[in-house]
C-alpha cells in the first residue's frame, strides 16, 4: 500500500508541476513559437515510472484549461506527451532521454497548429523542434544531472535501476 500511495503522490506532484508551469507561462506554452518550460520535466521518466502518468495528467490539465488550440490539442498533445514519457522511460542511455519528447512533439504539435491556426506544417516542425530542444536539453537535461548528483532528490524520485 505504501508503494502505491508513494507512486500516486509522485505522479500527482509531477502532474501539478507540469500543469502550473504551463499555465503560468501561456505566452511560452502555446502557439507556433513555443518553449514550454514544463517540458523540462519530460526527463523524469528516467528516474521514476510515476512520471509517465504524471506527465500525461499534467499535460491534459494544462491543455484543457489553457490551450487556445481546442480539443485537438487536449487529445493529441496529451497523448503525445504520454507516448514520449513512456518511450523515455524505456531508454537506457541518459543523454538520449530527452529525444522522445523532442521528436514526437516536433511531428505532432505542428499538425495541431496547422489544423487549429492554419500554420504551415514544415516550418512548425522546425520551430516546435527548436523550442522542445531548448526546454528539454537546455533545462531538463541539466535538471536531470542535478538530480543525479543530489542524494536526497535522487532518493526521493528514483524507483528505477540504470546501467
TrEMBL record:
The chain crosses the membrane at residues 6-28, 40-63, 69-88, 95-114, 126-147. Pfam families: QueT (PF06177). This is QueT transporter family protein. Keywords: Membrane, Transmembrane, Transmembrane helix. It comes from Alkalibacter rhizosphaerae. The lineage of its organism: Bacteria, Bacillati, Bacillota, Clostridia, Eubacteriales. PANTHER family: INTEGRAL MEMBRANE PROTEIN, INTEGRAL MEMBRANE PROTEIN-RELATED.
